[in-house]
Design brief:
By secondary structure, the protein is of the alpha/beta class. 23% of the residues lie in helices and 16% in strands. It contains 11 helices and 16 strands. It has an 8-stranded mixed β-sheet with strand order 10-8-11-2-12-13-3-14. Helix 2 (56-62) runs parallel beside helix 9 and helix 3 (79-88) runs parallel beside helix 11 (329-339). The chain is globular. The N and C termini lie far apart (39 Å).
Amino acid sequence: MVAACSSGSSKPSASSSTSAVTSTTAAAAAPLGHVFIINLENKSFDETWGASSPATFLNQTLRPKGQLLSQYFGTAHLSLGNYIAQISGQGPNPDTQSDCIAYKDFVSTGTGALGQELGAGCVYPATVKTIADQLTAKGKTWRSYQEDIGNSPTEPKTCRHPTLGEGDPTLIARKGDMYATRHNPFVYFHSIIDTPSCAANVVGLDALTVDLASESTTPNLSYITPNLCHDGHDTPCVDGQPGGLVSSDQFLTEWTTKILASPAFKKDGLLIVTFDEAESGDSAACCGTPPSPNAAMPGRNGPGGGRVGAVVIAGNVTPGSENATPYNHYALLCSIEDVFGLEHLGFAGAPGLKCFGPDVYDATKP
């Protein structure tokens, strides 16, 4: 079943340029300056947010601090297409739908409607931009914090990814090194991996503790990915940890506590915790997202990545509230772009897609 999306104001048609942007809409009224995103893995809404969920910290501590988006959907199956959507607005293709078993270049045949790069492959050409490129161009800062990225004795400690044309050895967790390339979308864009910003900004999770110490060292966008155990992907984990929502809850207990106590968050922070996709049996979608030109079924057996839910925490979000407005990963991208006054990339600029507005942000709160 496809959930209907609340219609917002109509947006202009996409630019045909390969930068894949649409016109900027008014920025959100919320006085936000630091956005934190944490993605967990492969859990359907009822399993995560239901009364019997083992994610007790997420449900009993984080959820009361903010707003539950009860109709938040993934955009694809498998994982990678969802992560790509969150930072670029690009729809899935057969390679990203298979988590790019081989790390190969995207072979482009042109640019379609809403800035969609036509073709298939994994690593997009430098003309396809991400929110990282947008932030850099505007003089803002970003970092992708990847747990275990530096744990391989033979691979780089930052900006870690397979060699182009070769297989991805991180598809299966290894003891002591449970980093997954497919959960790190920034290394699928030549606009990032071919520049020094990749080594500087795609870093290990340990760097987040240092960066949170002051507002000046905290990036405007912090994109946080746990390893294959702590994101709930594996159950049990290769090192004997329980995995699933139990281990992801332990991760959230540690890291969201640090984030919420940080000077940057206390000043003007926004924290979003969500999941990349539901279990593979749920391919529901929302929000009227146009069909991907490169994948007939983004969810393989349906139009989307299923209902996953999300919690949003900020000083101007009403604690303990719930919101049934339909959102998805493209809506998350346009919402972050609105915070920083950026144009909407790819499907984040789809006509009728609703970005966070007064339904999420309480205008009466500072």
